[in-house]
Please model this.
Amino acid sequence: MHRFFTTALLATCCLISVAVAEDWPQILGPNRNGLSKESNLIDRFPDDGPKILWRSPLGIGMSGIAVVGETAYTMFQDETQQFVVALDVKSGDQRWKSPIAPAFKNAMGNGPRSTPVIGRHQVFAMSGEGILAGFSLKDGKQLWSVDLIAEFGGRPAEYGMACSPILTDEHVIITAGLAKATVAAFDRQSGKIAWTTGTGNPAGYSSPALLSVGQQVQLVAFHGSGVIGLDPKSGKEIWSYPYKTDYDCNIATPISVAGNILISSGENHGTTLLKVPENSSGSVSEVWSSLGNRSVLRNEWQTSILIEGYLYGFDNIGSAGPVTNLTCINAKTGERVWLKRRFGKGNLIAANGKLWCSTMKGELVIVKATPDKFEELDRTTLIGKTRQAPALSNGLIFLRDDAEIVCVDVRK
Model:
């Protein structure tokens, strides 16, 4: 009997110590909500500094990083062209790079903004001026390309086309925000238009999400003047809600909070939690709303993270102002739980009970994900100026700036 319990205890300990690892196939990770199931990650950096596995030279761009298996994908540009690039996770060496469009220049920063999305044997990406294309995952061969402006008319978003595509089994979907299409879906294999929804709504800079509402999954798109819920198969509009922000700057990705939909904007706009219908016969109502210059949460371009009923996110003061707080909000009531003033502009994801925050200064900051109080565990400077949230896969964190991409081992 003693031997039985000893064996059982050892087996349990072995199971507990096994780290969970997963891919990061799109912006904001596996479920496009910034959450990772990975475990067994460090609480603090080693005394001699973070364990940097490699640095790889890259180029200008605001594109985030997607990681599947042993390959990381992002976008950048040189003097003449924008590229989609695949990097070896172990070494940082380029496996392939494929041009997608001419170099993109903009007063708010040059280069591509969109993060690639990976599905089966393809990678899909969009350039700064709105060229959507599909590529072979194996060798980067371009399979098809669509010029959204030529197809749907109008002009690119003022600060560049920033929406990251999302995948269903059949389609790749983008918030276009153009004259003939607010949202558009394309066949994954051929690039042919499958459906379009809406007209005359500006794109904003948000990426759509597939969210559960009651017994169904809806495609929720936050465009420049509001948010809409769609049937992802047909594009049929189920509900809509106006949310006009200065400069059409609705940028954060909508997230699900107990079946309700949370949207947040900067420019002193604020945050609203919406109760939305499962079908077009229902109506939209507010669960809670915190708006204006006294709002508890104003996501400028970052998506907040929901963990066990609490939202962790960046609250940006003023119109693109320099003051940014990190805060924790009760997601059910909208009440502030704690506030770290002047934490600094940044972005974040969450894993293993911790927030992994990147700052515009190029720092990686580890914060305990708890509503009890703000508790910073450690921070280190890794790269130059960046807006991207970290990507996390198999215990490795990936960050980039306009010069390079860095891979850091954060496994215990």
Observations:
- The first helix runs from residue 2 to 17.
- The chain has a mean pLDDT of 93.
- The radius of gyration is 21 Å.
- The chain has one domain: 20-409.
